[in-house]
Each structure stands twice: as C-alpha cells, then as structure tokens.
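queue> pop job 88
queue> type: inverse folding (structure -> sequence)
queue> payload:
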C-alpha cells in the first residue's frame, strides 16, 4: 500500500526555484532516505509535504486521502509527523512538559480545564504522562525529566525531539537530519530506535547528510539535486550512479 504519494510539488522563494516537479511515493513499512547536496531542496520538500509552508503546485496524498494544504497539526492527527533540522523544543520548559505539550490533547493547559475537569480528561492526562515516561526511559533521558530542555546537550535534544514525535503515534515519521551534530555512539542508539520502530510497522522518511549511516539503515534512497528528483533506488545502486556521484562531487 502506498502511504505517501507526492506529485509535482513546486516551491519558489522570489526568483529562486527551491523545488520543482518533485514526485515520489513511499510504501507502508519502508524506511526511505532522502539525500542530496546542501540546498538541494530536501527541507523545502518536507516543509511542503507537511504544509509548514505552502507549495506553489503539486498534490500530496497520505493514507488514502488528498491532504494537500492540510495544516501540520491535522496531518499529525492523521499520522504524519515530522521533526525539524533545528530542534524545536521549548527551552524554558521541562523535558516532561515538552513531552506532554506534544500529546494530541493536553488537558491542564487552561484554568477552566482544572475547574470543569472530567474524569475522562484526567485519565487522558494520566495516560499521556505514562506514555511520556515510557518513551523518555526508552530514549535514555528519563533522568532529565524535570530539567529544562535548554539544559540538554545537542544529542539529548535530538532524542527528546524523537521521543516527543512518538507521543503522536505516527504512521509516517519524517526526520530531518536526525544524526546531525550527534556523536557516533548516540547515532548508533538512534539508528537502533529507528529500526525498532520500523520493525513495529512504522514507515520512515529520513533526510540525512551522513550517507554511511543512512545507506545501512534504509531500503531505498531518493536523491534530490537542484530541487528535482535525480534518482531513486536501493542504496547500492544509487551509490554507483554516475549522475549521483557527479551531483555530490560537483556540488
Ligand atoms: N524560507 C526561505 N527563503 C528563501 N530561500 C529559501 C528558504 N528556504 C529555503 N530556501 C532556499 O531554497 C533552497 C533549498 O533549501 P533547502 O530545502 O533548505 O535545502 P536542503 O534542505 O536540501 O539543504 C536553498 O537555495 C535555500 O537557500
Ligand atoms: Mg535541510
């Protein structure tokens, strides 16, 4: 089953065409890598798919429905969740609260919730807390739960971002450079988590610069260059592709 189908996406910034005619599909259960030189349009492609920015043209189908232009929070509710190249944790908020704020519904955020609080909302909050602690333990940052997110190391922030995205129970998880600035042992740890999530049935689309890590992890690579899809195929095939080699060496 095709989980994500991107067709003819285009986005320009002034006179610069960042992405043009980008089309590809992701099958349910795949781990797909998206690579390409700096400025190739990878992040812009993610931004268009997840409606963080508007596309000039093109359509996005997800899980059997046309979701072109559907806002990010609504996409997350349908199961499409993405992380950002620059992590977006709230620095002056604790790790625990960062996790709870990601939960689909977070009672307790407004005073009237506390007053008219139903047992259903209390139960939902308890379940969200439990899930948050479980995830923080799996990701080895449970010890930091009352720490302000701003005090975490770069690597720990990446782990928090990943843990937080899982609060939304994604079908498709889109990661933008999850290994950037992360030390090798933590990279191995994140790779292990990604493989475990995929074993449980989660589909992943991962932008990454670190090709060695990615080629071992993914079933398939999509190569972007100058805002267009240059090639797609299994890692071994892509790494032998003359056009891809030229795009990297020439770029
Ligand atoms: N908000 C923006 N305003 C202007 N130009 C942008 C913006 N976002 C991206 N670009 C430009 O679009 C091109 C693609 O950028 P990006 O998608 O971030 O590439 P990648 O993630 O592959 O490194 C680059 O030339 C970049 O400078
Ligand atoms: Mg980018």
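queue> result:
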């Amino acid at each position: 089953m095709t989980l994500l189908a991107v067709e003819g996406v285009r986005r320009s910034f002034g006179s610069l065409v960042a992405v043009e005619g980008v089309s590809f599909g992701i099958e349910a259960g795949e781990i797909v890598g998206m690579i390409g030189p700096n400025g190739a349009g990878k992040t812009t492609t993610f931004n268009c798919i997840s409606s963080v920015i508007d596309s000039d043209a093109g359509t996005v189908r997800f899980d059997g429905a046309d979701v072109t232009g559907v806002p990010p929070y609504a996409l997350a509710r349908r199961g499409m969740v993405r992380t950002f190249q620059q992590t977006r944790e709230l620095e002056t908020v604790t790790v625990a609260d960062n996790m709870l704020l990601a939960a689909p519904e977070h009672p307790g955020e407004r005073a009237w919730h506390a007053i008219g609080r139903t047992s259903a909302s209390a139960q939902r909050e308890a379940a969200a807390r439990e899930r948050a602690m479980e995830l923080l333990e799996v990701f080895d940052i449970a010890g930091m739960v009352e720490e302000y997110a701003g005090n975490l190391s770069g690597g720990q922030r990446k782990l928090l971002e990943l843990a937080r995205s899982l609060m939304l129970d994604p079908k498709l998880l889109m990661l933008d450079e999850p290994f950037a600035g992360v030390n090798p042992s933590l990279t191995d740890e994140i790779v292990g988590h990604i493989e475990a999530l995929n074993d449980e049935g989660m589909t992943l689309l991962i932008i990454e610069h670190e090709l060695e890590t990615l080629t071992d992890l993914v079933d398939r690579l999509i190569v972007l260059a100058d805002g267009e899809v240059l090639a797609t195929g299994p890692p071994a095939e892509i790494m032998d592709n003359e056009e891809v080699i030229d795009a990297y060496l020439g770029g």
